[in-house]
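> call design_seq(struct)
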């Protein structure tokens, strides 16, 4: 029987701790000041959305898609300028949160690797090479 990453890391309780640790870093790290400014003062609602998304993304219950449909992450984030600096700040917060909450080093590294690819793809500024490949010539 295959165990999902969600189950492997400890399920919803671990995802909740991960998201809380992530946003705690965003609230306090000087390097995250620019991405924190892109969020509303009250992080409560966005925390709940990220908990549902990450839980589902890691193989847990489909709570995010049941509520919000297809993630369409880039489309949902087009109103926010995401360049290299924003990607790096987001990953800094996520790396620290993963280190704090995921005891399984192999799982932690696998999750970080996938999130790093996703964060890289989310860039929506002119320097994103993903857009250059997709643009019609």
């Amino acid at each position: 029987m295959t165990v999902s990453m969600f189950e492997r890391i400890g399920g919803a309780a671990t995802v909740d701790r991960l998201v809380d640790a992530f946003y705690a870093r965003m609230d306090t790290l000087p390097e995250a000041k620019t991405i924190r400014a892109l969020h509303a003062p009250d992080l409560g609602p966005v925390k709940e959305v990220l908990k549902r998304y990450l839980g589902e993304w890691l193989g847990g219950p489909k709570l995010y898609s049941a509520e919000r449909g297809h993630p369409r992450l880039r489309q949902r984030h087009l109103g926010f300028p995401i360049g290299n600096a924003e990607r790096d700040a987001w990953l800094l917060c996520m790396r620290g949160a993963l280190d704090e909450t995921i005891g399984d080093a192999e799982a932690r590294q696998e999750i970080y690797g996938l999130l790093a690819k996703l964060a890289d793809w989310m860039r929506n500024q002119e320097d994103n090479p993903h857009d250059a490949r997709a643009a019609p010539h």
